[in-house]
Amino acid sequence: MPLIRKQGASAPKELGLFWPMQTSDGMTVDVFIYASALQRLDPESVGPVGLLKRHRALLESIASEKFDRGDATGTNLLHITEEDLHVAQASEAKADDVQ
Question: Is 34 helix (H, G, I), strand (E, B) or coil?
Answer without folding.
Answer: strand
